[in-house]
Protein backbone atom coordinates (compact mmCIF):
# COMPACT_ATOMS: atom_id res chain seq x y z
CA UNK A 1 0.00 0.00 0.00
CA UNK A 2 1.34 3.44 -0.87
CA UNK A 3 0.75 6.51 1.17
CA UNK A 4 -0.77 9.29 -0.94
CA UNK A 5 1.73 12.06 -1.62
CA UNK A 6 -0.28 14.82 -0.03
CA UNK A 7 -0.62 12.79 3.15
CA UNK A 8 3.09 11.88 3.15
CA UNK A 9 3.94 15.54 2.86
CA UNK A 10 1.67 16.43 5.74
CA UNK A 11 3.19 13.73 7.94
CA UNK A 12 6.73 14.79 7.09
CA UNK A 13 5.88 18.41 7.75
CA UNK A 14 4.33 17.58 11.11
CA UNK A 15 7.35 15.49 12.04
CA UNK A 16 9.81 18.28 11.23
CA UNK A 17 7.73 20.80 13.14
CA UNK A 18 7.65 18.47 16.14
CA UNK A 19 11.42 18.01 16.08
CA UNK A 20 11.93 21.75 15.93
CA UNK A 21 9.47 22.24 18.78
CA UNK A 22 11.37 19.74 20.93
CA UNK A 23 14.65 21.59 20.31
CA UNK A 24 13.22 24.98 21.13
CA UNK A 25 11.40 23.55 24.12
CA UNK A 26 14.62 22.07 25.53
CA UNK A 27 16.38 25.43 25.34
CA UNK A 28 13.39 27.30 26.75
CA UNK A 29 13.11 24.81 29.60
CA UNK A 30 16.74 25.23 30.61
CA UNK A 31 16.55 28.99 30.43
CA UNK A 32 13.25 29.20 32.31
CA UNK A 33 14.40 26.73 34.95
CA UNK A 34 17.58 28.63 35.67
CA UNK A 35 15.83 32.01 35.68
CA UNK A 36 13.13 30.65 38.00
CA UNK A 37 15.61 29.28 40.51
CA UNK A 38 18.34 31.86 40.11
CA UNK A 39 16.40 35.09 40.01
CA UNK A 40 15.62 35.20 43.76
CA UNK A 41 19.37 35.04 44.46
CA UNK A 42 20.17 38.09 42.39
CA UNK A 43 20.74 41.24 44.40
CA UNK A 44 23.19 44.08 44.50
CA UNK A 45 25.03 42.35 47.29
CA UNK A 46 25.18 39.05 45.42
CA UNK A 47 26.59 40.69 42.29
CA UNK A 48 28.94 43.20 43.81
CA UNK A 49 30.39 41.76 47.01
CA UNK A 50 33.12 39.27 47.86
CA UNK A 51 32.23 35.70 48.86
CA UNK A 52 32.04 35.09 52.59
CA UNK A 53 31.99 32.11 54.92
CA UNK A 54 33.70 29.64 52.56
CA UNK A 55 31.65 31.06 49.65
CA UNK A 56 28.41 29.96 51.30
CA UNK A 57 27.44 33.61 51.83
CA UNK A 58 28.20 36.93 50.17
CA UNK A 59 28.54 37.51 46.45
CA UNK A 60 30.34 36.50 43.29
CA UNK A 61 31.93 39.84 42.34
CA UNK A 62 35.47 38.48 41.86
CA UNK A 63 34.17 35.74 39.56
CA UNK A 64 32.26 38.27 37.42
CA UNK A 65 35.27 40.55 37.21
CA UNK A 66 37.51 37.58 36.44
CA UNK A 67 35.33 36.40 33.58
CA UNK A 68 35.30 39.95 32.17
CA UNK A 69 39.08 40.11 32.39
CA UNK A 70 39.48 36.72 30.75
CA UNK A 71 37.06 37.55 27.95
CA UNK A 72 38.61 40.93 27.21
CA UNK A 73 42.14 39.54 27.41
CA UNK A 74 41.24 36.69 25.08
CA UNK A 75 39.73 39.16 22.63
CA UNK A 76 42.83 41.36 22.68
CA UNK A 77 44.99 38.38 21.74
CA UNK A 78 42.71 36.35 19.48
CA UNK A 79 40.98 39.06 17.42
CA UNK A 80 44.04 40.69 15.81
CA UNK A 81 45.74 37.36 15.12
CA UNK A 82 42.56 35.69 13.90
CA UNK A 83 41.64 38.63 11.68
CA UNK A 84 45.08 38.80 10.11
CA UNK A 85 45.07 35.05 9.50
CA UNK A 86 41.62 35.27 7.90
CA UNK A 87 42.69 38.18 5.68
CA UNK A 88 45.73 36.23 4.60
CA UNK A 89 43.74 33.10 3.82
CA UNK A 90 40.95 34.88 2.00
CA UNK A 91 42.80 37.64 0.18
CA UNK A 92 46.44 36.71 -0.28
CA UNK A 93 47.04 32.97 0.04
CA UNK A 94 47.39 31.14 -3.25
CA UNK A 95 45.21 28.08 -3.72
CA UNK A 96 47.92 25.54 -2.96
CA UNK A 97 48.35 22.29 -1.05
CA UNK A 98 49.96 24.30 1.73
CA UNK A 99 46.98 26.61 2.27
CA UNK A 100 44.61 23.69 2.01
CA UNK A 101 46.59 21.99 4.78
CA UNK A 102 46.30 25.16 6.91
CA UNK A 103 42.54 25.19 6.44
CA UNK A 104 42.20 21.54 7.40
CA UNK A 105 44.32 22.20 10.47
CA UNK A 106 42.06 25.09 11.49
CA UNK A 107 38.90 23.03 11.10
CA UNK A 108 40.44 20.25 13.17
CA UNK A 109 41.59 22.64 15.87
CA UNK A 110 37.96 23.66 16.33
CA UNK A 111 37.11 20.07 17.17
CA UNK A 112 39.69 19.51 19.89
CA UNK A 113 38.17 19.00 23.37
CA UNK A 114 38.66 22.02 25.59
CA UNK A 115 40.40 20.07 28.34
CA UNK A 116 43.16 19.26 25.85
CA UNK A 117 43.62 22.99 25.29
CA UNK A 118 43.82 23.36 29.05
CA UNK A 119 46.60 20.79 29.36
CA UNK A 120 48.40 22.24 26.36
CA UNK A 121 48.19 25.73 27.85
CA UNK A 122 49.54 24.47 31.13
CA UNK A 123 52.47 22.76 29.45
CA UNK A 124 53.32 25.68 27.15
CA UNK A 125 52.40 28.89 28.96
CA UNK A 126 52.33 27.98 32.64
CA UNK A 127 55.35 25.67 32.77
CA UNK A 128 57.52 26.07 29.68
CA UNK A 129 57.19 29.85 29.36
CA UNK A 130 57.06 30.17 33.18
CA UNK A 131 54.04 32.46 33.16
CA UNK A 132 52.66 30.52 36.08
CA UNK A 133 48.98 29.99 36.65
CA UNK A 134 47.86 33.49 35.71
CA UNK A 135 45.34 35.60 33.81
CA UNK A 136 47.78 35.97 30.92
CA UNK A 137 48.34 32.21 30.63
CA UNK A 138 44.58 31.58 30.78
CA UNK A 139 43.90 34.26 28.15
CA UNK A 140 46.54 32.81 25.83
CA UNK A 141 45.03 29.35 26.23
CA UNK A 142 41.50 30.62 25.64
CA UNK A 143 42.76 32.62 22.64
CA UNK A 144 44.22 29.52 21.01
CA UNK A 145 40.96 27.72 21.60
CA UNK A 146 38.98 30.63 20.14
CA UNK A 147 41.21 31.28 17.12
CA UNK A 148 39.81 28.56 14.84
CA UNK A 149 36.26 29.90 15.30
CA UNK A 150 37.34 33.48 14.65
CA UNK A 151 39.50 32.59 11.66
CA UNK A 152 36.95 30.43 9.92
CA UNK A 153 33.98 32.76 10.44
CA UNK A 154 36.04 35.82 9.49
CA UNK A 155 37.35 34.10 6.38
CA UNK A 156 33.84 33.13 5.42
CA UNK A 157 32.66 36.72 5.92
CA UNK A 158 35.51 38.05 3.78
CA UNK A 159 34.82 35.54 1.03
CA UNK A 160 31.15 36.49 1.00
CA UNK A 161 32.07 39.97 -0.27
CA UNK A 162 31.47 39.80 -4.03
CA UNK A 163 34.62 39.32 -6.09
CA UNK A 164 33.39 42.00 -8.52
CA UNK A 165 33.98 44.71 -5.88
CA UNK A 166 37.62 43.70 -5.66
CA UNK A 167 38.05 43.60 -9.43
CA UNK A 168 36.48 47.04 -9.82
CA UNK A 169 38.62 48.54 -7.09
CA UNK A 170 41.81 47.08 -8.54
CA UNK A 171 40.84 48.15 -12.05
CA UNK A 172 40.57 51.71 -10.72
CA UNK A 173 44.17 51.70 -9.59
CA UNK A 174 43.65 50.31 -6.11
CA UNK A 175 46.29 48.16 -4.52
CA UNK A 176 45.26 44.91 -2.90
CA UNK A 177 45.60 46.41 0.57
CA UNK A 178 43.64 49.56 -0.32
CA UNK A 179 40.90 47.33 -1.68
CA UNK A 180 40.83 45.26 1.50
CA UNK A 181 40.87 48.31 3.73
CA UNK A 182 38.26 50.37 1.92
CA UNK A 183 35.89 47.78 0.46
CA UNK A 184 36.33 44.24 1.70
CA UNK A 185 36.81 44.76 5.44
CA UNK A 186 33.95 47.25 5.93
CA UNK A 187 31.61 44.95 4.03
CA UNK A 188 32.72 41.87 5.98
CA UNK A 189 32.77 43.59 9.37
CA UNK A 190 29.32 42.49 10.61
CA UNK A 191 30.09 38.87 9.78
CA UNK A 192 33.50 39.13 11.41
CA UNK A 193 32.01 40.68 14.57
CA UNK A 194 29.45 37.92 14.78
CA UNK A 195 32.18 35.30 14.61
CA UNK A 196 34.30 37.12 17.18
CA UNK A 197 31.44 37.33 19.63
CA UNK A 198 30.47 33.69 19.17
CA UNK A 199 34.07 32.66 19.72
CA UNK A 200 34.46 34.82 22.82
CA UNK A 201 31.17 33.57 24.17
CA UNK A 202 32.58 30.07 24.14
CA UNK A 203 35.75 31.30 25.83
CA UNK A 204 33.69 33.03 28.53
CA UNK A 205 31.76 29.88 29.35
CA UNK A 206 34.56 27.31 29.36
CA UNK A 207 36.00 25.79 32.52
CA UNK A 208 38.51 23.22 31.33
CA UNK A 209 40.98 25.51 29.55
CA UNK A 210 41.38 27.78 32.58
CA UNK A 211 41.34 25.00 35.14
CA UNK A 212 45.11 24.49 35.05
CA UNK A 213 46.14 27.82 33.57
CA UNK A 214 44.75 30.64 35.68
CA UNK A 215 41.53 29.93 37.54
CA UNK A 216 41.65 30.00 41.31
CA UNK A 217 39.39 28.25 43.76
CA UNK A 218 39.03 31.28 45.96
CA UNK A 219 40.76 34.65 46.22
CA UNK A 220 40.22 37.08 49.09
CA UNK A 221 40.87 40.04 46.73
CA UNK A 222 40.59 40.97 43.07
CA UNK A 223 43.58 40.15 40.84
CA UNK A 224 46.15 42.95 40.81
CA UNK A 225 47.94 42.17 37.54
CA UNK A 226 47.79 39.86 34.55
CA UNK A 227 50.22 37.56 36.34
CA UNK A 228 47.77 36.91 39.18
CA UNK A 229 45.30 34.07 39.22
CA UNK A 230 41.66 35.00 39.02
CA UNK A 231 38.29 33.56 39.89
CA UNK A 232 35.92 33.04 36.95
CA UNK A 233 32.20 32.31 36.67
CA UNK A 234 32.28 28.87 35.03
CA UNK A 235 34.97 27.52 37.35
CA UNK A 236 33.32 29.12 40.35
CA UNK A 237 30.08 27.40 39.39
CA UNK A 238 31.91 24.08 39.18
CA UNK A 239 33.54 24.67 42.55
CA UNK A 240 30.42 25.65 44.46
CA UNK A 241 28.45 22.81 42.88
CA UNK A 242 30.88 20.01 43.66
CA UNK A 243 33.63 21.07 46.05
CA UNK A 244 31.94 22.94 48.87
CA UNK A 245 29.78 20.97 51.30
CA UNK A 246 26.66 22.65 52.60
CA UNK A 247 26.45 25.13 49.73
CA UNK A 248 23.08 26.90 49.50
CA UNK A 249 21.37 25.94 46.21
CA UNK A 250 20.26 29.56 45.82
CA UNK A 251 23.84 30.73 45.25
CA UNK A 252 24.54 27.97 42.74
CA UNK A 253 21.53 28.91 40.64
CA UNK A 254 22.30 32.59 40.99
CA UNK A 255 25.81 32.01 39.65
CA UNK A 256 24.52 29.89 36.78
CA UNK A 257 22.02 32.61 35.94
CA UNK A 258 24.67 35.33 35.83
CA UNK A 259 26.83 33.22 33.52
CA UNK A 260 23.84 32.44 31.34
CA UNK A 261 22.86 36.12 31.09
CA UNK A 262 26.44 36.99 30.21
CA UNK A 263 26.53 34.48 27.36
CA UNK A 264 22.99 35.17 26.12
CA UNK A 265 23.71 38.90 26.07
CA UNK A 266 26.73 38.34 23.84
CA UNK A 267 24.62 36.14 21.60
CA UNK A 268 21.93 38.78 21.41
CA UNK A 269 24.45 41.45 20.46
CA UNK A 270 25.82 39.21 17.69
CA UNK A 271 22.31 38.62 16.35
CA UNK A 272 21.44 42.31 16.46
CA UNK A 273 24.60 43.31 14.62
CA UNK A 274 23.94 40.72 11.95
CA UNK A 275 20.33 41.61 11.34
CA UNK A 276 21.02 45.35 11.41
CA UNK A 277 23.67 45.11 8.71
CA UNK A 278 21.82 42.52 6.67
CA UNK A 279 19.00 44.98 6.23
CA UNK A 280 21.41 47.70 5.16
CA UNK A 281 23.57 45.56 2.93
CA UNK A 282 23.82 46.69 -0.66
CA UNK A 283 24.42 43.37 -2.40
CA UNK B 1 46.43 42.32 -43.19
CA UNK B 2 47.37 44.94 -40.63
CA UNK B 3 46.40 48.36 -41.85
CA UNK B 4 48.93 50.83 -40.46
CA UNK B 5 47.61 53.31 -37.91
CA UNK B 6 49.51 56.52 -37.48
CA UNK B 7 50.93 56.99 -34.00
CA UNK B 8 48.84 54.27 -32.38
CA UNK B 9 47.89 54.39 -28.69
CA UNK B 10 48.46 50.68 -28.26
CA UNK B 11 50.78 48.64 -30.41
CA UNK B 12 50.26 44.90 -30.04
CA UNK B 13 52.91 42.66 -31.49
CA UNK B 14 52.71 38.88 -31.70
CA UNK B 15 50.78 38.64 -28.45
CA UNK B 16 49.86 35.19 -27.18
CA UNK B 17 48.13 34.57 -23.85
CA UNK B 18 47.91 31.22 -22.14
CA UNK B 19 45.94 30.34 -19.03
CA UNK B 20 47.18 28.03 -16.32
CA UNK B 21 45.20 25.03 -17.55
CA UNK B 22 47.12 25.30 -20.84
CA UNK B 23 44.25 26.73 -22.91
CA UNK B 24 45.46 29.35 -25.29
CA UNK B 25 43.24 32.37 -25.25
CA UNK B 26 45.06 34.51 -27.82
CA UNK B 27 47.34 33.32 -30.59
CA UNK B 28 49.92 35.58 -32.15
CA UNK B 29 47.88 38.77 -32.32
CA UNK B 30 49.27 41.92 -33.91
CA UNK B 31 47.29 45.13 -34.23
CA UNK B 32 47.40 48.86 -33.61
CA UNK B 33 44.78 50.73 -31.65
CA UNK B 34 44.25 54.30 -32.90
CA UNK B 35 43.95 57.14 -30.39
CA UNK B 36 40.84 59.27 -29.97
CA UNK B 37 38.62 56.75 -31.69
CA UNK B 38 36.39 53.83 -30.83
CA UNK B 39 37.92 50.45 -31.55
CA UNK B 40 35.60 47.47 -31.46
CA UNK B 41 36.75 43.93 -30.69
CA UNK B 42 34.00 41.52 -31.71
CA UNK B 43 33.29 37.90 -32.48
CA UNK B 44 31.63 34.87 -30.86
CA UNK B 45 32.23 33.91 -27.23
CA UNK B 46 35.59 32.34 -26.44
CA UNK B 47 37.37 34.31 -29.14
CA UNK B 48 39.77 36.05 -26.80
CA UNK B 49 38.31 39.59 -27.00
CA UNK B 50 37.95 39.94 -23.24
CA UNK B 51 41.40 38.49 -22.69
CA UNK B 52 42.88 41.11 -24.98
CA UNK B 53 40.89 43.83 -23.24
CA UNK B 54 42.14 42.67 -19.84
CA UNK B 55 45.68 42.59 -21.12
CA UNK B 56 45.56 46.33 -21.80
CA UNK B 57 45.17 47.07 -18.07
CA UNK B 58 46.90 43.91 -16.87
CA UNK B 59 43.73 42.74 -15.15
CA UNK B 60 44.62 39.23 -16.27
CA UNK B 61 47.21 39.36 -13.50
CA UNK B 62 44.35 38.52 -11.12
CA UNK B 63 44.02 35.12 -12.78
CA UNK B 64 46.77 32.96 -11.35
CA UNK B 65 49.15 31.36 -13.78
CA UNK B 66 48.41 33.49 -16.87
CA UNK B 67 51.36 33.61 -19.26
CA UNK B 68 52.09 36.16 -21.96
CA UNK B 69 54.42 36.26 -24.89
CA UNK B 70 54.83 39.09 -27.38
CA UNK B 71 54.63 42.82 -26.79
CA UNK B 72 51.99 45.37 -25.90
CA UNK B 73 53.20 48.95 -26.11
CA UNK B 74 51.26 51.86 -24.62
CA UNK B 75 52.67 55.05 -26.10
CA UNK B 76 55.81 53.09 -26.81
CA UNK B 77 56.21 51.56 -23.32
CA UNK B 78 56.01 47.82 -22.92
CA UNK B 79 53.25 47.25 -20.38
CA UNK B 80 53.85 43.50 -20.14
CA UNK B 81 57.32 44.01 -18.71
CA UNK B 82 57.64 42.96 -15.07
CA UNK B 83 58.90 46.46 -14.29
CA UNK B 84 55.56 48.03 -15.22
CA UNK B 85 53.81 49.83 -12.38
CA UNK B 86 50.40 48.20 -12.80
CA UNK B 87 48.70 50.58 -10.38
CA UNK B 88 49.84 53.57 -12.46
CA UNK B 89 48.89 51.71 -15.64
CA UNK B 90 45.35 51.11 -14.39
CA UNK B 91 44.95 54.81 -13.66
CA UNK B 92 45.78 55.53 -17.29
CA UNK B 93 43.64 52.68 -18.61
CA UNK B 94 40.20 52.57 -17.01
CA UNK B 95 37.63 49.84 -17.39
CA UNK B 96 33.85 49.42 -17.44
CA UNK B 97 32.50 45.92 -16.92
CA UNK B 98 29.58 43.98 -18.35
CA UNK B 99 27.45 44.18 -15.23
CA UNK B 100 27.21 47.55 -13.52
CA UNK B 101 29.04 47.16 -10.23
CA UNK B 102 28.44 50.20 -8.07
CA UNK B 103 30.71 49.96 -5.06
CA UNK B 104 28.70 49.62 -1.82
CA UNK B 105 28.80 53.33 -1.00
CA UNK B 106 27.13 56.56 -2.09
CA UNK B 107 27.16 57.97 -5.60
CA UNK B 108 29.59 60.65 -4.49
CA UNK B 109 31.92 58.11 -2.89
CA UNK B 110 31.84 55.98 -6.03
CA UNK B 111 32.90 59.01 -8.03
CA UNK B 112 35.77 60.01 -5.78
CA UNK B 113 36.94 56.49 -4.96
CA UNK B 114 39.67 56.28 -7.60
CA UNK B 115 41.05 59.72 -6.84
CA UNK B 116 41.13 59.02 -3.12
CA UNK B 117 43.07 55.83 -3.83
CA UNK B 118 45.53 57.93 -5.81
CA UNK B 119 45.98 60.17 -2.78
CA UNK B 120 43.93 63.20 -3.91
CA UNK B 121 42.53 64.93 -0.82
CA UNK B 122 41.66 68.43 -2.03
CA UNK B 123 37.92 68.81 -1.85
CA UNK B 124 37.83 71.22 -4.76
CA UNK B 125 39.53 68.76 -7.11
CA UNK B 126 37.33 65.92 -5.92
CA UNK B 127 34.18 67.95 -6.48
CA UNK B 128 35.29 69.06 -9.91
CA UNK B 129 36.13 65.51 -10.98
CA UNK B 130 32.77 64.38 -9.60
CA UNK B 131 30.77 66.88 -11.63
CA UNK B 132 32.85 66.60 -14.81
CA UNK B 133 32.71 62.82 -14.78
CA UNK B 134 28.95 62.75 -14.29
CA UNK B 135 28.46 65.42 -16.95
CA UNK B 136 30.53 63.49 -19.49
CA UNK B 137 28.56 60.31 -18.82
CA UNK B 138 25.32 62.28 -19.21
CA UNK B 139 24.26 61.44 -15.68
CA UNK B 140 24.71 64.74 -13.86
CA UNK B 141 21.18 66.06 -14.36
CA UNK B 142 19.66 62.80 -13.13
CA UNK B 143 21.64 62.41 -9.92
CA UNK B 144 22.91 65.85 -8.93
CA UNK B 145 20.35 66.12 -6.13
CA UNK B 146 20.97 62.65 -4.75
CA UNK B 147 24.75 62.37 -4.68
CA UNK B 148 24.74 61.11 -1.12
CA UNK B 149 22.31 58.28 -1.72
CA UNK B 150 23.59 54.71 -2.03
CA UNK B 151 24.73 54.03 -5.57
CA UNK B 152 22.77 50.79 -5.77
CA UNK B 153 19.52 52.73 -5.41
CA UNK B 154 19.63 54.17 -8.95
CA UNK B 155 18.45 52.21 -12.02
CA UNK B 156 20.64 49.70 -13.84
CA UNK B 157 21.19 52.05 -16.77
CA UNK B 158 22.15 54.88 -14.44
CA UNK B 159 24.45 52.56 -12.53
CA UNK B 160 26.32 51.66 -15.71
CA UNK B 161 26.71 55.32 -16.62
CA UNK B 162 27.96 55.89 -13.07
CA UNK B 163 30.56 53.18 -13.68
CA UNK B 164 31.65 55.03 -16.81
CA UNK B 165 31.55 58.36 -14.97
CA UNK B 166 33.74 57.18 -12.11
CA UNK B 167 36.33 55.99 -14.62
CA UNK B 168 36.16 59.36 -16.41
CA UNK B 169 36.68 61.12 -13.07
CA UNK B 170 40.15 59.59 -13.02
CA UNK B 171 40.90 61.26 -16.36
CA UNK B 172 42.35 58.13 -17.92
CA UNK B 173 43.79 58.03 -21.42
CA UNK B 174 42.12 54.80 -22.45
CA UNK B 175 38.72 53.38 -21.55
CA UNK B 176 38.15 49.64 -21.88
CA UNK B 177 34.56 48.42 -22.01
CA UNK B 178 33.60 44.76 -21.78
CA UNK B 179 30.04 44.41 -23.11
CA UNK B 180 29.01 47.47 -21.11
CA UNK B 181 25.41 47.44 -22.28
CA UNK B 182 24.65 43.73 -22.09
CA UNK B 183 22.39 44.19 -19.09
CA UNK B 184 20.68 47.36 -20.29
CA UNK B 185 17.45 48.16 -22.10
CA UNK B 186 17.65 49.82 -25.56
CA UNK B 187 17.07 53.35 -24.25
CA UNK B 188 19.84 53.08 -21.64
CA UNK B 189 22.07 51.46 -24.26
CA UNK B 190 21.52 54.40 -26.61
CA UNK B 191 22.42 56.82 -23.81
CA UNK B 192 25.67 54.98 -23.10
CA UNK B 193 26.53 54.84 -26.80
CA UNK B 194 25.79 58.56 -27.16
CA UNK B 195 28.12 59.44 -24.33
CA UNK B 196 30.83 57.29 -25.94
CA UNK B 197 30.49 59.23 -29.19
CA UNK B 198 30.75 62.51 -27.35
CA UNK B 199 33.82 61.60 -25.29
CA UNK B 200 35.86 59.81 -27.95
CA UNK B 201 37.57 63.05 -29.00
CA UNK B 202 39.38 63.02 -25.68
CA UNK B 203 39.88 59.31 -25.06
CA UNK B 204 40.94 56.13 -26.72
CA UNK B 205 38.01 53.75 -26.36
CA UNK B 206 38.27 50.00 -26.81
CA UNK B 207 35.01 48.15 -26.53
CA UNK B 208 33.79 44.58 -26.74
CA UNK B 209 30.20 45.10 -27.93
CA UNK B 210 27.36 42.80 -27.03
CA UNK B 211 26.09 42.41 -30.59
CA UNK B 212 27.27 42.71 -34.17
CA UNK B 213 24.81 45.57 -34.65
CA UNK B 214 26.38 47.50 -31.80
CA UNK B 215 29.81 46.74 -33.23
CA UNK B 216 28.78 48.20 -36.58
CA UNK B 217 27.19 51.26 -34.94
CA UNK B 218 30.23 52.18 -32.87
CA UNK B 219 33.28 51.04 -34.78
CA UNK B 220 35.80 53.50 -36.09
CA UNK B 221 38.13 50.56 -36.18
CA UNK B 222 37.27 46.92 -35.64
CA UNK B 223 38.87 43.54 -35.18
CA UNK B 224 37.06 40.23 -35.65
CA UNK B 225 38.22 37.50 -33.27
CA UNK B 226 37.58 33.80 -33.67
CA UNK B 227 38.95 31.17 -31.28
CA UNK B 228 41.94 33.20 -30.22
CA UNK B 229 42.81 34.45 -33.66
CA UNK B 230 42.46 37.89 -35.13
CA UNK B 231 40.71 37.08 -38.39
CA UNK B 232 40.34 40.57 -39.77
CA UNK B 233 41.30 44.06 -38.75
CA UNK B 234 40.43 47.33 -40.37
CA UNK B 235 38.39 50.51 -40.38
CA UNK B 236 34.83 49.95 -39.34
CA UNK B 237 33.28 51.34 -42.49
CA UNK B 238 35.19 48.79 -44.58
CA UNK B 239 35.02 45.82 -42.30
CA UNK B 240 31.28 45.77 -41.84
CA UNK B 241 30.34 46.75 -45.38
CA UNK B 242 32.94 44.88 -47.39
CA UNK B 243 34.76 42.32 -45.28
CA UNK B 244 37.74 40.74 -47.00
CA UNK B 245 37.58 37.44 -45.15
CA UNK B 246 34.86 34.89 -45.76
CA UNK B 247 34.60 34.09 -42.04
CA UNK B 248 34.10 37.76 -41.15
CA UNK B 249 31.39 38.08 -43.77
CA UNK B 250 29.64 34.96 -42.55
CA UNK B 251 29.63 36.23 -38.97
CA UNK B 252 28.65 39.81 -39.78
CA UNK B 253 25.76 38.65 -41.94
CA UNK B 254 24.61 36.22 -39.28
CA UNK B 255 25.45 32.96 -40.99
CA UNK B 256 27.05 31.69 -37.77
CA UNK B 257 27.59 32.88 -34.22
Low-confidence residue ranges of chain B: none
Summing up helix and strand content along with how strands pair, one would put the structural category of chain A as mainly alpha
Strand content of chain A: under 5%
- Whole-number radius of gyration of chain B? 18 Å
Helix/sheet category of chain B: alpha/beta
**CATH homologous superfamily title of the largest domain in chain A:** MetI-like
Helical proportion of chain A, percent range: over 70%
Give the helix proportion of chain B (percent range). 25-40%
- Please write the string of helix (H) and strand (E) elements of chain B: EEEHEEHEHHHHEHEHEEHH
CATH top level class name of the largest domain in chain A: Mainly Alpha
Major sheet: arrangement of strands of chain A: 1-2
- Please provide the ordered H/E string of secondary-structure elements of chain A: HHEEHHHHHHHHH
Number of strands of chain B: 10
**C-alpha termini separation of chain A:** 50 Å
Write the CATH fold name of the largest domain in chain A: MetI-like fold
Count of folded domains of chain A: 2
In words, what does this structure look like?
The complex is a heterodimer of chains A (283) and B (257). By secondary structure, chain A is mainly α. Chain A folds into two domains: 5-40; 42-280, MetI-like (MetI-like fold, Orthogonal Bundle), CATH 1.10.3720. Chain A is 75% helix and 1% strand. Chain B is an alpha/beta fold. Chain B has ten helices and ten strands. The longest helix of chain B is centred in the middle third of the chain and has 14 residues, at 123-136. The model of chain B has no long low-confidence stretch (mean pLDDT 90). Classes of the chains: A mainly alpha (283), B alpha/beta (257). Chains A and B meet through helix 7 and helix 8 of A and helix 2, helix 3 and helix 6 of B.
Amino acid sequence: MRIPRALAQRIAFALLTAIMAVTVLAILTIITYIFWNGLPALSGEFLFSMPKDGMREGGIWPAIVGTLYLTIGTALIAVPIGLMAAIYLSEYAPDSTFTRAIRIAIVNLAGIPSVVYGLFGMALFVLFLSLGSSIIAACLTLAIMTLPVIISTAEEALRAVPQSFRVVSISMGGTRWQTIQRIVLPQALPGILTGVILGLERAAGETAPILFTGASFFLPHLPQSVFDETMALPYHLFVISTQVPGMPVRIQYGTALVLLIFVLAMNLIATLIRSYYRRRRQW
Amino acid sequence: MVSPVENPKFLVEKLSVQYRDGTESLRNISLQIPRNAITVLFGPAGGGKSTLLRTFNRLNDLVEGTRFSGKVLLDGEDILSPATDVVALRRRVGMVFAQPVPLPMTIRENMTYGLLLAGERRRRNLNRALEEGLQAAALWEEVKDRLDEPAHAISGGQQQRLCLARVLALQPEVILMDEPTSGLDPISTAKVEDSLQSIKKKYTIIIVPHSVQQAARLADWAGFFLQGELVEWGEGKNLFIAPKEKRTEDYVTGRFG
